[in-house]
Design goal:
It contains 16 helices and 33 strands. The protein has 660 residues and is α/β, with parallel strands linked by helices. The radius of gyration is 26 Å and the shape is globular.
């Protein structure tokens, strides 16, 4: 089943929907929607009573066992998805009599009332016993671990934990000296060069979570040989701040049946504009796919909490599912209904049935193809090296080196995440604090061998390291935004300009060796009077974008024209990323070999036009979409540097285009 595109319906099973009417509705929806498997969610959401007792678990298993037989008789596989492990948040819940384990503690010393410490041996024994009991009774094909298996996002704690007495003893042992929670947190978050406490935190907590995953897998597999594990994740950078090592976790969750599945978050639990979702798609979802080992097949999380058309339309649901072809999803987990069971599911079922052949086409035609595009360099272990500013919150350890992806991808430039600096002859981005992840020699080689695009935050790190010469600079000064001085970026070869005001980022004035640069734009006052260089090209292959904290309004037609024209004219000798022709606003493209997955997040229908130089000579084009999952050949015309297809991509939809 999982060798083809797979729909897994997550179903909240409780006493409130354990009746014949709701079972019949579930079976009918599975038939109409092409559902391959149902994952039973236990003790979920507003019906959660805290950590379930043995008696509560057994009563739930009685219901699950009956329903599993009905589903299997109808040809639908059954999985398990316990909603609680550590517990998502307290919400007034407390530990029950006999639940004598420690709870999670945040950096300020606040202890959770119900959320468990992931290293407490009493809790680990409880959890493994419960999961083994469930696996033995239901015999699931996949045992899914929900996303509360994390250290962050555990309300009402500040960020999360764990800084409990047990973990403080572990930190002290690793440091070789006693350390209080207050002292350890100060060291962990200290501004400037990371303190030794940072490395200890990442090591101890990374091992804490890997060990917990391994204990669970051993218990579940012993109870149900042949099972596979599934892991739901959050944002990769949040997990990196927990010291999470996905190679180690993949190993810990691998059973005799194979590597675990990964349920990547798609972020939009409620409907937003497609343009807003596009940023999350690149920044969170695609990045998580890049960080997780390739052997973990992706069955992402489609959720419409709190579950109805009041939260999310069928069309937006379709947009999310189809767009996942841009990171080679092998299926989709579907959380569509609340604990009342299937409701108003006919339109959803019709949509799911309609697009499934196309989803299988994307899976089959892209899964073994090499990914191509602008190399977005990112360090998945950046929290070990990030410099904090204030030292007050764990979120200061989050890195934004991946931000380049959601700046350039919506301009119709193919992008891919690259988690190693060992690239040559490519167009690469170096953003935020990424230079901290490399040695001086690695940085020099990276800049020597590639066409590099970097922002002011990266230039700032080079300045700290005494490496401003890599970008032909001698000084950098941050001026902030809306300062009354710098108002527009004015092109030096035309009267075109771009705003430097709200929503672009903080401008940085950089002083250069003028013999090494070509000034593309100048910072100017409102009258257009030039004041200093802004965007510059250094040594013909280093593009400096002089902004800190770049924001979405940074993108505009003029910026798109600037970036693409520079790449077309100056990146000869480097591997040029495939690019759509201007204008390509919010047409995102991921490329696998000769296959181009394009999603239209614009809201308007758009023609498909490539910059000819970036895709090479094109003789023919085959388009696959929901209406033509088997593909159809469309006419191709190349003129004036543009290769245009006789095809219009409808708004909020995805197409797979094969060029030859």
């Amino acid at each position: 089943m999982y060798e083809h595109y797979t729909y897994v319906l997550r179903y909240q099973l409780s006493a409130l929907n354990d009746n014949e009417e709701k079972t019949a509705a579930l079976l009918d929806f599975c038939r109409k929607a092409g559902i391959d498997a149902v994952a039973f969610i236990s003790n979920a959401e507003e019906l959660n009573t805290g950590h379930a007792t043995v008696e509560e678990t057994e009563r739930w298993l009685d219901r699950a066992e009956r329903l599993a037989k009905r589903l299997r008789a109808a040809g639908v596989a059954v999985s398990l998805n316990p909603w609680e492990s550590l517990l998502h948040c307290d919400r007034g819940r407390t530990l029950k009599p006999g639940q004598n384990w420690g709870t999670m503690v945040d950096q300020n010393g606040r202890a959770a009332d119900a959320q468990a410490c992931p290293a407490d041996p009493v809790f680990i024994e409880y959890l493994c016993d419960k999961y083994a009991r469930m696996a033995a009774r239901i015999r699931p094909d996949v045992f899914w671990l929900d996303d509360d298996m994390r250290l962050h996002n555990h309300a009402p704690l500040h960020w999360g934990g764990c800084f409990c007495p047990r973990h403080m003893a572990m930190f002290s042992e690793a440091l070789g000296r006693p350390v209080s929670r207050e002292e350890f947190v100060r060291g962990l978050l200290a501004p400037g060069e990371p303190d030794e406490c940072r490395a200890v935190w990442l090591s101890v907590m990374g091992k804490t979570m890997t060990d917990l995953f391994r204990y669970i897998r051993e218990a579940v597999e012993a109870a149900c040989p042949g099972v596979r594990m599934g892991h739901m994740c959050s944002d990769a950078i949040s997990h990196a701040t927990e010291g999470r090592d996905y190679e180690a976790i993949c190993d810990a969750l691998t059973t005799a049946a194979g590597a675990p599945f990964i349920r990547i978050t798609q972020s939009a639990y409620m409907e937003v504009s497609p343009r807003e979702y596009e940023d999350w798609f690149h920044y969170i979802t695609r990045y998580m796919r890049a960080v997780a080992p390739a052997r973990m097949k992706a069955l992402p999380e489609l959720e419409n909490y709190p579950f109805s058309a009041y939260s999310k339309s069928v069309r937006f649901t379709r947009t999310e599912i189809e767009a996942a072809g841009g990171y080679r999803a092998a299926g989709m987990t579907l959380d569509l209904f609340d604990g009342n069971g299937v409701a108003c599911g006919d339109e959803l079922a019709a949509m799911l049935t309609q697009i499934k052949p196309f989803l299988e086409t994307m899976r089959a035609r892209t899964e073994n193809e090499p990914e191509r595009g602008m190399a977005i360099l990112s360090d998945p272990h950046s929290p070990a090296r990030v410099h904090t500013k204030q030292g007050l919150s764990m979120t200061e350890l989050y890195s934004s080196d991946r931000r380049a992806c959601d700046l350039f991808a919506p301009m119709g430039i193919a992008t891919r995440y690259v988690l190693t600096p060992d690239v040559r002859g490519e167009v690469v981005t170096v953003f935020d604090q990424y230079p901290r992840s490399l040695s001086d020699d690695e940085l020099k080689r990276l800049f020597r061998d590639n066409f590099v695009i970097l922002d002011a935050a990266a230039v700032d790190v080079l300045s700290e390291r005494g490496l401003l010469g890599l970008v032909g600079a001698t000084a950098i000064e941050h001026t902030g935004r809306d300062n009354g001085v710098y108002s527009i970026e004015r092109f030096t070869d035309s009267d075109r300009y771009m705003t430097m005001q709200c929503g672009t980022g903080d401008f940085s004035r950089i002083t250069y060796d003028r013999t090494r640069i070509r000034v593309l734009t100048e910072a100017a006052d409102p009258s257009g009077r030039p004041l200093c260089p802004a965007t510059v090209l250094v040594d013909g292959h280093i593009l400096v974008i002089p902004y800190l904290h770049i924001e979405a309004f940074f993108r505009n037609y003029s910026r798109e024209l600037l970036i693409k024209s520079v790449l077309l004219s100056e990146a000869d000798g480097y591997t040029l990323p495939p690019m759509l022709a201007f204008p390509a606003a919010h047409l995102s493209m991921e490329v696998f070999g000769s296959k181009y997955v394009i999603t239209n997040f614009l809201g308007d229908d758009a023609p498909v036009r490539f910059l000819a130089k970036s895709v090479g000579a094109v003789r023919s084009a085959t388009v696959y979409d929901a209406e033509h999952p088997g593909g159809r050949i469309v006419a191709v015309r190349t003129a004036d540097g543009v290769t245009e297809l006789d095809y219009t991509l409808r708004h909020d939809e995805t197409a797979l285009i094969e060029l030859s």
